[in-house]
Every structure is written in structure tokens, then in C-alpha cells.
Amino acid sequence: MVGQHARYGASAGALLLVGGGHAHVAVLAEWIRHGPPPDTRTLLLTPDPVLRYSGMVPGWLAGQHGKDEGLVDIAALAARAGVEWLPGRCTALDPAARTVTTDSGETITFDYASLDTGGVGQGAALLGDDPRLVDIRPIEVFTERLAAMPAPSRMVVAGGGAGGVELAFGLRNRAGADPLPQVSLVTGAGGLLPGFSPAVRSRVAKALARQGIVLHHAEARFADGAIMAGAISLEPAELVIAATGSAAPPWVRASGLAVDGHGFALVDAQQRALSHPHIFAVGDVAARVDRRLAHSGVHAVKAGPVLAANLRAVLGGEAPRASYRPRRHSLYLLNTGDASAIATYGPFVAEGAWVLALKHRIDKGWIAQYAALAAQ
Ligand SMILES: Cc1cc2nc3c(=O)[nH]c(=O)nc-3n(C[C@H](O)[C@H](O)[C@H](O)COP(=O)(O)OP(=O)(O)OC[C@H]3O[C@@H](n4cnc5c(N)ncnc54)[C@H](O)[C@@H]3O)c2cc1C
Q1: Quick check: 141 and 181 in contact, CB under 8 A?
Q2: 21 C-alpha to ligand 1 centroid (Å)
Q3: C-beta of 118 in contact with ligand 1 (< 6 A)
Q4: CB count in 10 Å sphere of residue 209
């Protein structure tokens, strides 16, 4: 079906932003600060009017801030940036025909497109299906489901990465829970915090033990209706949360874009699709060919201004030149849910209430800058 936007972009300079992720909010901000590129119409296709900042979800669980404090008002930013927001999801991309199909069946044409949709959950694929399983992706669905259910007293978090660890801490310290819920953290084959230094792993393991969170270095899976950590049954459990990393959205591989072995869009140092230079991709949906970048919000956020510069360049008929070069180490601040946090930067590690205060200042500052721009 061809929808009302079918001819959108028939004139030169039509840019389609697919997904209102952490990098695309930076593009909107750049359009607001410096004006949209001349002779360009920009459309943003994303399902929700807000972006939920995942870094503040564990703090919400632990009662450190309100559920909706970590929201960026994308619809308001788009309006301020002169960008048309179309609520919906991309379900198919045809790079050669320069079209995107949405979940409502509309076809959108573009001259240039940029993908920032994040990844999709893979909990059911890895653990098996069970009515108690809740995936952390999409994060807005996860948050609403948890907010709507009575606080469980026994739960399992599957996934030993930073997201799983922070959620285990947040759930153990769930606001208003008395007694505190029983939480098991099952790391998977990669172990606790793969990619982090031994010093931070040991610090986090001590904090988990101190708080009574039971750590299993095993694979989580459902077997005969029971949630298992390897050969050990973790029943009874009322809730099983999958924080098992993100998979590539299936429409990326199906589009014919060059992808890596996991189906993420392969991009060069300018975030340009290797196979189709009029398509850009950034954040968790993309994989850089020139360097290995972890799928993390930090990288999506920092690549945002670079992407904005490159989109402005190509829309002005110039070559994109900007490149996001991550520092050797990234600062991670892991909320331990008990009024404290653990900081890690490469081999350096520190812990305390001051780390949590720093985390809150950085997180709230990030949200506030967009709130101020939207209100201008
Ligand atoms: C609990 C938790 C805590 C985390 N904490 C941290 C942290 O402290 N630091 C850190 O660096 N990382 C953290 N992460 C990882 C971080 O959330 C992701 O790496 C980051 O969100 C990726 O950003 P993105 O811009 O690629 O996509 P996203 O932030 O996922 O945004 C994608 C957007 O696109 C929209 N969308 C999705 N599919 C489509 C589609 N088909 N069509 C159109 N729009 C679509 C979505 O609705 C969303 O608005 C955490 C993750 C979790 C789950």
C-alpha cells in the first residue's frame, strides 16, 4: 500500500531518520541549534513521542527517581527542529528504491536515510518461551510492564553485562519492597561483566554478595517449565528478566544492506553503510568496520553530533568527513541500588555515594539539555 507519505522526498534533499534513538536526538538538537540544512525536508519515523534513557531505569526501580524522569521528548524536539514526526516502525527497507515501509503499510521515499533504531530483544530465542519472561528490549515496554505488575518477591535476571547487573541491583532494592525480593543473577557463558577489568568484576561480585544477590556463572534457560542456571533449578521464580544483549532487527539483513555476522548494518568511520552510501546507521543497529565498538548508549550518544555533521555535509552536496573516535576507555557508572555506585574507567575502579551522585548529575544533565532545547 502506498500511503500519504509515498511521495515524500520526491524533491532533492529528503532525509528520513529511522528510529528516535540516542544519536538521532543529537541530530534534532543540531538542527535546532544551527537550523535545519537548507532545502531539506526531514522526516522522523519512530513509534513513541519520547525516548526512554535506559541508564536511569535501574535508578527508577530502586526509587531514586520517578519513572518518567528519564524521558527525552522527541516529538517536541522534532517540532522545534522543523522535522516532521511520523509515529510508526520501519518494517522493511529497500536501499536501491530508496523506500521504507512502515508497520501501517505506508511507503516513504527518501534521498538519504539514517538508521538509529537500536537492537531487538533475544531473550525468548536464547532462554525459551515462558509467560514469566520479560525482555528488557524494547525498554519502554519493559518499564511499563514492570510498573503495571505487583512487585514480585523472587526473580531471576539472565545476563551478566552492565544492563543485567544494574537491573539485578535495582530490583533487589525495589522501592517500597518489604521484605526485599530474592534476586538471582545468571551471567551466561561470558561470565560477569565481560569486557570489564578484573578489578571491577571483583568489586561488583562483592557488592552482589553483600546484598544477597545470588550469582550463577552458567547459562539461563527454561527446561520443562522451570528456569534453570545450568543444571540448577531457580524455582520458584515469579519473574524472569532477559538482559541478554540485543540482536539485529531482521529487516536490516533482509534489506540487502551489507551486514556483519550478526546482521548489524556495516558502516564506515563516517557511519555510512558500506554497501549503500546514501544510508547511514548509528548506535546499536550498526557495526563499524574499522573498529569494534560495544553496543552501548555511550557510543550512540557520542556518535550523534558526528552523524549530524555528516548528514549536513551530504545534504549540502559535500563528502562526509567527521568520524567518531572513541577514547581508549569509556566511563561506566554502575548503580548498585543501595545509594551507591561503582565507577570504572579502564583499569580504574571506585565506589561510593559520590559515584552515584556523579551518575545522577551526568544522567540528569543529559536529559535537561534536551528538555531546555525542546522548551526554547
Ligand atoms: C537497563 C539498561 C541499562 C543500560 N545502561 C546503560 C548505561 O548506563 N550506559 C550505556 O552506555 N548503555 C547502557 N545501556 C545500553 C543502551 O541502552 C543502548 O546501548 C542504547 O540505548 C542504544 O542506543 P540506540 O540509539 O542505538 O537505540 P535506542 O536507544 O534503543 O533507540 C532506538 C529508538 O528507535 C525506535 N525504534 C525501534 N525499532 C524501530 C523501527 N523498526 N522503526 C522505527 N523506530 C524504531 C525505538 O522506539 C527507540 O526510540 C543500558 C541498557 C539497558 C537495557
Answers
A1: no
A2: 6
A3: yes
A4: 11
